Amino acid sequence: METFRMRLRFLSNPRISGIILPATLFQQLQLRQRQKIKVLLGKKEVVATVLQDKRNPDANVMKVTTLLQSELGIPHPGLIQLKLEGSALRIGPSIGIVTTGIRRDPKQPIGSRTSFFYNLLQAQEGKGVFYYIFSPTDVDWESNTVKAWFLRRNKSGGYFWKKHVTAMPDVVYDRIPSRSAEKHEAVQEFKYRLASYPNLPMFNQGFFNKWGVHQLLYPNPEVNEHIPETYTSPSLTTVRNLLRKYPIVYLKPKNGSLGYGIVKVVRQAGGGFTASYHTGSGNVKKQFSKLSSLYQHVFRSRRVSAYLAQQGIPLMTFHGRPFDFRVHLHKNQQNEWVVSCTAAKVAGSGSVTTHVRTGGTVIPGDDLLQHLFGRQKALMTQRISDASIRLATAIELAKGIDLGELGLDMGIDTQGHVWMFEANSKPGRSIFKHARLRQADQESRKLLVDYSCYLANF
Prior knowledge:
This is Endospore coat-associated protein. The protein is of the alpha+beta class. The protein folds into four domains: 3-92, Beta Barrel (Barwin-like endoglucanases), CATH 2.40.40; 95-203, Rossmann fold, CATH 3.40.50; 208-226 and 314-458, D-amino Acid Aminotransferase, Chain A, domain 1 (2-Layer Sandwich); 229-312, no CATH class. It has helices at residues 23-28, 66-72, 114-122, 179-182, 185-194, 210-217, 236-245, 291-298, 365-373, 377-399, 438-455, and strands at residues 3-11, 18-22, 35-41, 44-53, 61-65, 78-85, 88-92, 94-98, 130-134, 139-140, 145-153, 159-167, 171-174, 202-203, 230-232, 248-253, 263-267, 273-279, 282-288, 307-311, 317-318, 321-331, 337-346, 361-364, 405-412, 418-424. A seven-stranded mixed β-barrel has the order 1-5-2-4-3-7-6. Strands 8, 9, 10, 11, 12, 13 and 14 form a seven-stranded mixed beta sheet that branches. It has a six-stranded antiparallel beta sheet with strand order 15-20-16-17-18-19, with helices on both faces. A hairpin with a 2-residue loop joins strand 18 (273-279) and strand 19 (282-288). The N and C termini lie close together (9 Å). The model has no long low-confidence stretch (mean pLDDT 93).
C-alpha cells in the first residue's frame, strides 16, 4: 500500500481517540465516516475513530486528538508518513537508536557523545520520521513504551533535546558503544527480549571479531581474493612460515580497534627481523637477530590467543608513505549497498598503521586516486567500489543479520590488487571531519534513515 507524507497536527480533545484525514485521502483509502480502526505507532496499537476533513479536502494535513496522542505516545507534530496496512493505519516510521551512557542532562543527554548523536538525528530533516535515542534501561516492556530523547527545533530554528515517553520503535539501530558495554546485563537482557518481538528488526547488532570475519570470507570464492592469509593464536612456527612466504607479517589483536596493539614484523634482507609498534610515548622499532627473541618480546605482555598473524601487503605509497582506504558503505531504501564515502588514510612517519591517532592523515579518496592514477582514476575507483560492495554483501549473508552500514579498511598493493584488512560494524566517523567530506557525511547519515524506513516497511 502507498505511503503518504502528511503534516501531523494535534487537536485538543481529551475525550475521543480520533484521527481526522483530508477528504480526498479518506476516500482514496476507502474509509467510512466514524469507522473504528486500529492506529499503530511503532509497537503500540490503539483503536480510534476516523473522520474526514471536508473543509480542507486536498490538504496533506492529518489531525490527531490529544487523547490518541497520549495513548500512542506520539512525541511531536510535524512531517510524518501514513499508510494503510491491512485493516490498520500506521503512523511513523518510529526509529530508535539504542546506546548506553544516557543521562538526565537536557544539554548533554549522552555525555561526551552527545554531538555524535546530535549529528545523526539531524538527518531526520525532511524525512518524515520519529527518530530518537534510548538506552536498554529506558524500556517499559509491559506498556510497550520507551523513555527517549528527541532532537527538536525551536521557533528560532535552533535545536534542543526533549525527552518523551513514546512507543517501542518499528526498527532499532544498535549503537552500543563498546564490547564491554555490550556485555552488561541490561544490554544482554534488552537484546534477548527484543528478539521475541514480532517484526521488530535491529540492525548492526554487536561487534565484529577479525578472526570471525576472516573465517566467513576466506572460504568464499566470490571474495577471498581480497582477504590476506591469516592465522589465529599464532605459534612461533606459524609466524616463521608466514615470513618465509612474505617479507612482512602483521600481528593484530582479534578485537582491537584504532590500531592499538598492532605489531609489524619485517624480515630483513641481510638477516634478522624488526618489530615496529606504537606506544603511548610514540612509535617504536626494535631489531632482533632471532625470530624467537622477537616473538618472546612481543608476547611477553600479550596473550597469543588474543592475536592473529596476517600476511603483510606491500601497499602503494603516497609521497613515500603507505596508505589505505576507509570505505564507508550503507544500505539505501531499496536495500542495496552503496558506497557513501572513500577516504584515503596516509601513514604518519614511522607509523605501523595509517590511523590518525598515530600521525596518519586523511585525504579524500578521489584526490589521492587522481594524483596516482590520472586517467585511470575512474577504473581504480570502480575496482574499490565493486570489491567493497561484494565484500559487504558476503559479510551480511554469512553473518545472517541485518546490516545498514559497514566501514571497510581496504588497500591497494603495488600490483594494483585490492585487499580488505578489516570490517567494522560500528564504524567511526572521524574521516568525515575533513572539510571535503562534509557532504558525504550528510549523505551517510541520511542513508541510515532511508534504510531504517526500508526495514520498517515504510
